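Z., the sequence and structure:
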Amino acid sequence: MILQADNGQELIDQLKKVTILPDICILDIFMPVLNGLDTLIQLQEKWPEIRTLIFTGHNTDYYLIQMIRAGANGYLQKNCSPTELETALRSIYENGVYNSDIMTYKFYKAVKNNETKLPEFTRNEIELLKYCCSDLSYDQIAQKLGTTMRSVDWFRNSLFKKLHVGSRSSLVMYAIQFGLVSLDIDVTNKSLTTKK
């Protein structure tokens, strides 16, 4: 089933009329009438079996975190190559998730298949992983942890090394995938909260 819509509301209206749902929806963050986040929340409420790829020109932590917390299965920038877009769609279809840091998923699958063990994390690293799922900047996270930005950089770089990744989005995906944070999505109030 292939559908094309000019905005989120049009997509929701079309999905209500079809008998066969698409496997994956590709959403932008900024769409008229109904934006990407509100569209994603409705998709999760009405059709949780539909997987989603966020395909956008915006790559700020704020938007990325909001979309992942709302249930997006992948996040990709529009300046990517056609090959990477195809890879993302295949990964979401076959594995349920995609991130441009491919090592995250190799590691994820290895852990799930008991081929490798989870690395040992310090208390500060676990706290940082949890806060990475919030809208806080690294400077604000340092304040929450009662430490300095230099220490937060140290914790983050240590996590990058242990998990073989190099971006905050990978840390967010890791924290969610391995249950280090649980997510509450209040669809009625359109709010997202992260439980620690």
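Strands lie at 24-27, 51-56, 74-77, 182-186, 191-195. The radius of gyration is 17 Å.

Let me know what you think.
H.
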